[in-house]
Amino acid sequence: MQAFYEISGLNVYIQIVVTVISIALHLYNTRNKERRETVLEIVAIYTFGLAGWFGIMSGLFGHIIYADEVAAGIGWPLNSGFQMELAFASIGIGLIGFLGFWNRSFWLPFIIPKSIFMLGAGFTHVLHMIQHNNFSPSNTGIIVYWDFLFPIVLIALYLLYKREQKSYSI
């Protein structure tokens, strides 16, 4: 299972790459057509929708199917019921984001709990580094940066989208 520890944070990179490729393919495939959505809206659709999808997968695979491996990678105790609770929270929040592919009204209800969840997780990672000297592979590095940066991206993207919508309605 050493390989798992060496790729901790790989899901973050995969999410970024899949999102960027999806946006690029959509824009490329619609380059000579009149789009219903603005470029910013397309970026938002894929960012929120895929963040939701990856949240569902994180809950399912990271905290149910591979719960002990993930716990060990973070430096948590094994066989904890906490993992199952975290899984269902991740799946529920992720589902709200995933539904944002089809309905923009799901965006804000996704961004609020996702951002609080991630900022809280980031704070907890840092706290465990300081208080418990926990520098396990999945408690440090890209995971921690992502926990603080991605909520900023989500909020900024949503605010830009709302500003753009307001400017079109004038």
Structural class: mainly alpha
Instruction: Sum up the overall morphology in one term.
Output: elongated
Work out the radius of gyration.
17 Å
Largest sheet entry: none
Report low-confidence residues grouped into runs of 5 or more. 1-6
Beta content: under 5%
Strand segment tally: 0
Distance between the termini: 57 Å
How many helices in DSSP terms?
7
Query: Which range best describes the helical content: under 10%, 10-25%, 25-40%, 40-55%, 55-70% or over 70%?
Result: over 70%
Overall mean pLDDT: 91
How many structural domains are formed by the residues?
1
- The string of secondary-structure elements, in order, is HHHHHHH
Describe this structure in words.
The structure is a single chain. The protein has 170 residues and is mainly α. The chain has one domain (19-169). The protein has seven helices and no strands. The chain has helices spanning 2-6, 10-29, 39-65, 67-74, 81-99, 107-132, 142-169. α3 (39-65) crosses α4 and α3 runs antiparallel to α5 (81-99).
For the structure shown, list the relevant keywords.
disordered N terminus; 170 residues; mainly alpha; elongated
SSE blueprint:
Blueprint: H1 2-6, H2 10-29, H3 39-65, H4 67-74, H5 81-99, H6 107-132, H7 142-169
Helix pairs in contact: 2-3, 3-4, 3-5, 3-7, 5-6, 6-7
